Amino acid sequence: MSKLYFYYSSMNAGKSTHLLQSSYNYKERGMNTIVYTAKIDDRFSEGKVSSRLGIHADAKLFDENTNIFDEIADIISTDTCDCVLIDESQFLTKVQVKQLTDIVDTLGIPVLAYGIRTDFLGETFSGSAALLAWADKLVELKTICHCGKKAGFVTRIDEQGNAAIDGEQIEIGGNERYEALCRKHFKELVWDRQT
Ligand SMILES: [Zn+2]
User: Fold this and answer.
1) 88: which of 29, 40, 125, 126 lies 20 to 30 Å off by Cα?
2) So where's the catalytic machinery, residue-wise (predicted)?
3) Ligand 1 center to residue 155 CA distance, Å?
């Protein structure tokens, strides 16, 4: 039985590394995978998933207009696909997450989606909310706060070195940094400073 998996975390928990390892495991057994990442992410060259450990793989790109179900259905009319892996899946639309459920339920292909659960204000992304609601399996990839507790939250550090308390959910081309924090420290830095 194929399943839709959502591997979620805050920043810097090794999502891309986990994705690349999973894809490699399929290929090592002679199976084919298709990897997607968001076009919105311009940290790296287009069409690549890169891990902080230095490994990378070519990827197809999605934006809000991509019909991922149609693309996979088209590919398997001439080739094989044993697993679909999606990085930056927090940026998927609700409609696209439904397409992922169709890839699993209609085409019988497992889908592994990797993404950030909440943004720098603690709110869910569209893709993460739909994946948390509809995935068959939820798997948390953990990282730790500076205090040693599990870091489930992420803050955006502005140019002055402070945690941002407002702004756009997605900043394209910004030089901002992100830091993973536990809920207690996230609240002190963000929610407690909001009016
Ligand atoms: Zn903490």
Assistant:
1) 29
2) 88 (proton acceptor)
3) 12
